[in-house]
User: What shape does this take?
Amino acid sequence: MRIGFTLPQMGALAHETHDVARFAREAERIGADSLWVGDRLLGPVNPSVGYFGSDSIPEEFHAVLDPFALMAVAATVTERVSVGANVLNAPWYAPAVLARSLTTIDRLSGGRLLPGFGTGWSPEEYQAAGVPMKERGARLDECLDALEVLWSENPAQYEGKHWRVPATHSDLKPVQRPRPPVYLGAFAPAAMQRVARRADGWLPVVAPGTGPFDPTAITAPMADIRTRASEAGRDPAELGMVLRVYPTATASVDEIAEALVRAEREAGVDHAFVEMMNVATEVDGALELAERVLDTARA
Assistant: This one.
């Protein structure tokens, strides 16, 4: 299994901005296979929708660094690891802007970008982005269409209901051809159908520390996605997944490692990463924890 970790982006770790590059270099040195970012725009004081079904948001969302800047840093100070996003809230960004940023990162990394997209859940973030939340699904679909055009055609042009890219010279393309692989976060039926119809893979999540590991939480939805992909005329075997392991603050190294090992053995996961914002408050501690997780999971 390929095992990665999130970069120091959120919460207490975000305050150690000067150590982002060191974390990326050291994580690669100790054997990490990928480095990841998320995408939070606000930490609403009075959220109208809470996180993961709660009525609040995590304190870690009070301090968040820009995902594109962190991916660029990781791309330039490493040589081997994949540089991923789980997830970028694509409806917030004009496709031409998103394509420029992601193409830059893919080229800086020599073709190691692994972009994951989603739609987010916070009405306040959509208000701040100036995008109607009710249009998020349609805007994501159009964004994926426009990225496909911008990454494959020259000149490139896109006309949609929500996004428009006038005919433009598009000489600069990602290193990865025909484009970087696109993964999607999805839980609702319409979103799962989108994964099946047009993504290269799915981004599931498990949470060590909240109860026993249940492989069916991964295998059942993935089986459904592959069935839908087959019905859409795609080869279901071509769809992959990258598992986000999101431990609670009280989860032990053994619990995190067990989730990784069981996900590989019982759910067929071949790439996973550990979210660090709940389990470390400074970069040295995050690196120590990452090394212990790698040693334990690979023992």
Q: What stands out?
A: Residues 2-297 form a domain with the TIM Barrel fold (CATH 3.20.20.30). The chain has a mean pLDDT of 97. The chain has one domain: 2-297.
